[in-house]
Amino acid sequence: MISLLRKVESIGSQVATIANAIGTLIVLALVMVVNYDVVARGFFNNPFHGAVELVQFSMVLIVFLQLPDVVRVNRLTRSDGFLSIASDRWPSLCKYLNKLINLIAFVFMVLIAVAIWPEFVDMFETRDYFGVPGVFTAPWWPIKLVIFISAVLCSLLFSLKVLLPDADEDDSNSSTR
């Protein structure tokens, strides 16, 4: 069972890494758009119409594309001060508290996925968009889909952090066999 979960973890990690790379490419594209807008506005008095809307659209995509990889590498912002200080004194307690925190994060990600799915379906069916008609418009559904997929992937990664033994436990279990 552990080997199957490790395989799922490996696939989830690969998907998270790919999503992170896509988010990084969007950041680079956003830098080019903003630079183009600055140059076009400053030198030619002809700004890139829709730059603000494009930045708003992209920011949400970037955050949710990169979130699973942040979860994967344990870099999610949270207050670990107590766990860091107490881990030397009470390693077992801290291990279980960390698993509890991951379980709570799993529940929140499931709630986000459940909440965003109907919004995605509604936006996909109605072809609702945001922006200023004639300037810049984009459909909402890709953003909602990225949020949903990100939440599901984060849920998977958090659940694996709860279910799988820590790396040091894995090593000690394999050496006693």
Radius of gyration: 21 Å
Ends: how far apart?
Answer: 16 Å
Extract low-pLDDT stretches.
none
Instruction: Give the ordered list of helices and strands.
Output: HHHHEEHH
* Broad structural category: mainly alpha
> DSSP strand (E) fraction?
under 5%
The largest sheet, given as strand count, sense and whether it forms a barrel, is: 2 strands, antiparallel
Indicate the overall shape: elongated
Overall average residue pLDDT: 89
Q: Enumerate the strands of the largest sheet in spatial order, edge to edge or round the barrel.
A: 1-2
Number of helices: 6
* Helix content percent band: over 70%
Total number of beta strands: 2
The tally of structural domains comes to 1
Quick recap:
This protein has six helices and two strands.
Task: Describe the overall structure.
With 177 residues, the protein is mainly alpha-helical. The chain has one domain (2-175). Helices cover 79% and strands 5% of the residues. The chain contains 6 helices and 2 strands. It has helices at 2-44, 51-72, 81-86, 91-126, 141-163, 167-175, and strands at residues 129-132, 136-139. A two-stranded antiparallel sheet has the order 1-2. Strand 1 (129-132) and strand 2 (136-139) form a beta hairpin. Helix 1 (2-44) runs antiparallel to helix 5 (141-163), helix 2 packs parallel to helix 5 and helix 4 (91-126) packs antiparallel against helix 5 (141-163). The longest helix has 43 residues, at 2-44. The radius of gyration is 21 Å and the shape is elongated.
